[in-house]
Amino acid sequence: MAQDLVIGADVGGTWVKYVVVDTADQRVLQGEIATDTGDVGITIGLLAREVLGALGTDRSRVQAVGLACAGIVSPDSGRLGRSPNLPGWEQQDLSAPLRDAFGLRNVVVANDVNAALYGEYLHGAGRGCLHLVMIALGTGVGGGVLIDGRLLLGVHNSAGEIGHMILDLDGPTCTCGNHGCLEAYAGSAALLRRARELAAAESAVPLGSGGAISDSFGDFVNRLGTQLTTNELYQMAEAGDLTAVALFRTAGHRLGQATASLINLLNPDRVIVGGGLALAGDLILEPCREVVRDGVLAEQARNTPVVSAALGPHAAALGAAALARETEF
Ligand SMILES: [Zn+2]
Questions:
Q1: How many A from CA of 153 to the centre of ligand 1?
Q2: Which value, to the nearest 10 degrees, does the dihedral of the CA atoms of residues 126, 130, 132, 138 take?
């Protein structure tokens, strides 16, 4: 039987999303299982049982497995380095449990945003481009860089940590311990924190709002407390609440500051913005584009498209599958 299938999986702090893809890039299977953040072997074992079980006799068609993981991943050694959302997985070998669980020699591992970028490059918002930057606005902010159709890993596999570009040494504290990183402005955790600060201090004036905080914003945010999500902030902004609009605008300006520097540095075809906050679309992307137009040096690069990711929540799993297919073992 032809070995025409590849499996791609994306390990997040809560779920492992997976796809099985054929040579025509059609998904023959997709789904998710819960992540055990304390144990690599248990999670990968469950994943293999679920996917191979669903494939049945077609399991013999599987050629390779790609696993994307949040954190610093070394594709050569198969090890995961720092990974705050997967504490029990840090400093663990990922390749050996994958080989054991799937009964396959051909396995690859990659950083999750790098995998998502590779997926977008082949099948999504970056199709037809050779030079891409991806910024993933999740709880934190991840990044990836593709040059000449190849992912940029760097000497320690830690290239593309765009979320920790320092934009203001006196800025808010970041999860990494530094101050003023992009993540401290444009990650959803930072946005929620800022929203609560504004709601708590009625006198605070957000950047660009031009006035005192609106009653509805403070009441709404205080009422929801820890239940507040960026989706609610998005809906408030869409409904015209000025404070909510200003929150996204500030995040978008900071995103633009980082994006302009990345365009000056790398001159990509496109910058792809993904992750949950990217669903706010032009509320966050338009302020970003404004800063890019003013902040980019080369005239031809000032209109570098800043676009939303296109592949949705399975982007990293699809990218991991593509990396598995393209790797020469
Ligand atoms: Zn940081």
A1: 19
A2: 50
